[in-house]
Every structure is written in C-alpha cells, then in structure tokens.
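Customer escalation, tier 2.

The customer says the design service returned an amino acid string that "doesn't look like it belongs to this structure." They asked us to rerun it and document both sides in this ticket. The original structure tokens are below, unchanged.
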C-alpha cells in the first residue's frame, strides 16, 4: 500500500515562550544561512544534508532526480538506491511505497512541480525537525536553480562554438582547441564529427547518450539536429571511427545519423561537421544501400573532397554521369539504375537483366545510350571506373542538386 509520511508539524510561533521562540528563529536563520553558503560556495547538497541532519538530530537524505543526485548522511538506515527509486516515482507521479526508514519528508518543489525531496531517516530529537527539513528543501531548490543556470550557460557556449565551426570552417586550430578546452573537451588530437536529425522529441536524451558513450565529447542540439565532436584522445584513427560508428548505430532509433571521417588537424573540424552533414543528407535521400557503403572507401574520400573543394566533385559529376541523370529526368527513363545494376553485377548482362526485370537486349540498348550521352563506354575497363566514380559523386551531391 502506498502512503506518504507527513513532515512533523511546525511548532507554534510562541512555543516555549518568547525567549524560546526567539532562540528557535535565530537558530533557523543561522542554519538557513549556512545551507545557502554551502550551495553558493560549491559544497553542494552533501553539505546541506549534513547541516540538516545535525540540526534535526537524525540522518537525512536529499534526492533530486533532475540533477541525478541522491546524498545520504552517515548512519542512515536506508540505501541510497531505495530512496532514489522512491523519490523518482514521486516526481513522476507514480505510486510509491515509502521506505520504512523514512520518518518525515519535505518536498523540493518549484511552483507546482515536484523536483525532489528531503527525507528524515529516523526519529528526530526535537519537535522543530520539520523546520530544518523545509530549510534544506529551500537550499536544495537553490542548488537546482544554480545547476540549471550553469547548464544553460554551458549549452549556450557549446551551441555558439559549434555554430561557429559550421559557419566558419577556417577557424584556426589553436583557437578551436582553446575554446573546446574551456568546455571540458580535448580536441588537440582531432575528432570525428557526428550529425543526427531527430525523429524523436528527446534531444536532451540523445545529447546525454553521447556524453555517456563518449566521455569528453562535445554535443549540442541545434536547429532540430544534434551535433557532436568525438575527440580522438590519442587513439588510432580506425579505433575512433569504430567507436563513432557504434555510437551512430545506437542513436539511429532516434533518427538519421551522419558520421564524418577522422580529422587529426583541429583546424579542419569545421569541415568535419560539414562532412557529417553531407553524409546525413545522402542517408536521408538514398536510404540503406548507400548508408551501408559510405563509411569507407571511395565514398568517404569523396565526402572529404566535397567538404573542402565542392567544385571538384561537381565538376567530376558533370564530366561523367550528369548527362545521363538529366536524360532520365527529361524522358522518365532509368539509364542510371541500369548502369548501377550493370556495375554491381560485374558487367554480366544476364544478371543485370534479371536484376532490373528487363531483357538483355534492353540492357545493351541502355548502355549504348549511356555511351552516346557521356562519351564513356561501360564495356571498357577505364571508362567503367570513371562512370562508377561519377555515380558515387552523383549520390553524394544529389541532395544539393536543383530539383
């Protein structure tokens, strides 16, 4: 059966006579000032709990799920995990069985929103224990406000830093390292960039997942996307990339994810972010077949070139398969799909015909049209290589081509 312990009633203002009341007020004020000083000086809720326990004469726990904090003073008869679950259920408005050790509690609330609780874990030595629990709750709410203000400042700084890298890929490497260091991220050995476009409404959860999975990473939610820099930390490039791809795989339940190459030079991390955005654009447009291939090989090289010299990739596309793409768009044909199938099936006409559900003579006719349009013959090895690379270039720049 669920129930809530009631905090001990506060004594009347005149209890014990005027002198007793004045003494209590003075003591409450002194304890209150000590608690606020503990919060503002950075001693945190552990010190607040200790002050409350000393004043109340019994162990005290302070649990604030929003800050992921559960502190219990010495001599407490209840485990911190049990208390954490109890208060978490209370905050989430779920049925909660009160642990046997909890004798009284004071809510930590912001307006009508419950954010935590101060728990008295044993019989108090004085009738005014509830007053000290209340003071601890007020000090805890101040700690919540301080932490949230600090988080907001850090979020703004992270967002400003990542926005600068997106807008100015030429930011000097030493400036990037210096600014990242202020945010607790070491980019001295370079990083991999990650860009996720969310389909869920849990951007904070995604950012928290990145921070947990990649300690020291810099992540922030910007413009409906989450951007992150995953530091190299002195590891081999392939190790860094493997970890980044593993993280991307876990994040895909929240949306689409693009991962850049590993950039050892901090001065190129703006291009790393651009590359991650490009990969994400291609994944969104092309789907799983491209997503499986873009992590390595020619695709990855093209992404790096596109991030730094987009005109070169566009020029190569124009010199190879662009006429075929335009022909398909104009006449609603599928020369591009036929060429892709032909290359994927090792230039086997029968296998290509079966793959696209067409007669082999139709395949031959379409490949001849490709040769006429591009001047490159799919039958010749050297021309095939150029056409294959042109198709890859088309796939990665297609999201940015005029429709």
């Amino acid at each position: 059966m669920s129930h809530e312990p009631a905090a001990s009633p506060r004594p009347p203002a005149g209890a014990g006579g005027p002198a007793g009341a004045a003494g209590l007020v003075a003591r409450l004020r002194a304890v209150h000032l000590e608690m606020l000083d503990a919060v503002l000086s950075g001693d945190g809720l552990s010190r607040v709990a200790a002050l409350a326990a000393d004043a109340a004469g019994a162990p005290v726990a302070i649990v604030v799920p929003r800050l992921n904090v559960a502190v219990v003073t010495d001599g407490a008869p209840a485990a911190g995990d049990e208390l954490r679950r109890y208060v978490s259920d209370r905050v989430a408005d779920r049925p909660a069985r009160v642990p046997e050790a909890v004798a009284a509690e004071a809510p930590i609330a912001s307006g009508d929103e419950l954010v935590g609780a101060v728990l008295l874990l044993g019989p108090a030595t004085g009738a005014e224990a509830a007053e000290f629990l209340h003071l601890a709750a007020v000090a805890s709410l101040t700690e919540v406000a301080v932490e949230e203000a600090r988080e907001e400042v850090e979020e703004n700084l992270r967002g400003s830093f990542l926005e600068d890298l997106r807008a100015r890929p030429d930011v000097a490497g030493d400036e990037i390292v210096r600014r990242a260091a202020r945010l607790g991220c070491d980019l001295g050995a370079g990083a991999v960039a990650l860009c996720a476009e969310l389909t869920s409404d849990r951007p904070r959860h995604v950012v928290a997942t990145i921070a947990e999975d990649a300690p020291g990473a810099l992540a922030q939610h910007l413009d409906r996307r989450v951007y992150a820099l995953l530091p190299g930390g002195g590891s081999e490039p392939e190790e860094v990339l493997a970890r980044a791809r593993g993280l991307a795989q876990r994040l895909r339940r929240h949306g689409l994810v693009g991962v850049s190459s590993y950039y050892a030079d901090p001065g190129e991390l703006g291009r790393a972010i651009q590359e991650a955005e490009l990969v994400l654009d291609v994944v969104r447009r092309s789907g799983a077949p491209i997503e499986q291939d873009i992590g390595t090989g020619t695709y990855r090289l093209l992404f790096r070139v596109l991030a730094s010299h987009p005109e070169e990739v566009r020029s190569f596309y124009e010199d190879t398969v662009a006429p075929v793409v335009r022909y398909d768009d104009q006449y609603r044909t599928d020369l591009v799909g036929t060429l892709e199938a032909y290359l994927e099936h090792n230039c086997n006409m029968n296998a290509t015909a079966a793959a696209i559900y067409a007669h082999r003579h139709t395949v031959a006719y379409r490949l001849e049209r490709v040769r006429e349009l591009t001047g490159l013959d799919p039958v010749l090895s050297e021309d095939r290589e150029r056409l294959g690379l042109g198709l890859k270039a088309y796939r990665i720049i297609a999201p940015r081509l005029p429709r």
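Tier 2 assessment: The sequence is consistent with the input. The radius of gyration is 31 Å. The chain has a mean pLDDT of 83. Sent an explanation to the customer and offered a walkthrough call.
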